[in-house]
Amino acid sequence: PRALKYVDERLLATPPVALMQVKKEIEYMLDLVEENVNMSFDAMEGRNLTRGDKVRNNEKIIDFTNGALTKFLIKLSTDASESDERVIGSYFHVLNDLERIGDHAENFMDISVQMKADGLQFSEAALEELAHVNATIDRMFALALDTFDSRTTDELEELARLEDEIDTVKKQLSHNHFARLAAGNCRMDLSAYFLSTLTGFERISDHLLNVGYSILNPTGSKAED
Residue 221 has what pLDDT? Predict the structure, then answer.
């Protein structure tokens, strides 16, 4: 993986400048995470399984960036002011949330590969449902990034509403899935993949909510996994 693009040890002498640069690294990491979620979902829809290597390479960069920034922030915290300490604390949690989202994206790609190997494909109805959830997640990514970047609360209400919507939709889509099974319109061996994908999207929405709320509360929001 690359070295950190915006951060090096010389910045430790000027914590406010260092934190501005760390923010740029985190936003780069967020872009990579979003790219991985979208590429992995594309693979799940059967459009482009060849991007698996790109997803795994991105995941290596995400993990490297998480580890390198965490070490840098620990060093930075030793001489930071109280206000800078609060920002550092929130950044620790945002890094953790992004790393978790990256893990879920990688799991989506693993599901796609396994389904391909098993000759399985989600039904059109299931794919339409999942595509709706993915579109909502895309909107949440945009809101979370805007909020994190601007440090303003204007879009937090919408972000929270979408997270609640995904919680509700997950329950409805689980019900729909079991109805399809009962009607003989879906194969039983698809259940684990479908429900795991739904759960992954729900967890991603939790972490994106945390990223947004990190500007108010260093520990983010209500969600952990």
Answer: 63
Indicate if the alpha-carbon torsion angle 38, 39, 40, 41 is positive or negative.
positive
CB atoms within 10 A of CB 209: 25
- In the numeric block, the tokens 């319109």 are attached to 185
Model confidence pLDDT, tens digit, residues 71-86: 999 999 998 899 899 9
Q: For 153-207, how does the pLDDT look when each residue is reduced to its tens digit (9 = 90+)?
A: 999 999 999 999 999 999 999 999 889 888 887 788 888 999 999 999 999 999 9
Structure-block tokens of residue 67: 């580890």
Q: Maximum distance among all alpha carbons in the chain?
A: 66
Number of H helices, E strands in the chain: 6, 0
How many CB atoms lie under 10 A from the CB of residue 45?
14
Structural contact between residues 98 and 30, judged by C-beta atoms closer than 8 angstroms: yes
Judged on CB neighbours under 10 Å (0-12, 13-18, 19+), 110 is middle
- pLDDT tens string 17-42: 999 999 999 999 999 999 999 999 99
Nearest-angstrom CA–CA distance, 36 and 141 = 12
Spatial separation of the C-alpha atoms in residues 96 and 85, rounded to whole Å: 17
The average pLDDT across 88-110 equals 97
Q: Which of 52, 49, 55, 50 is nearest to 35 (CA)?
A: 55
Residue from 38, 94, 41 nearest 207 by CA: 94
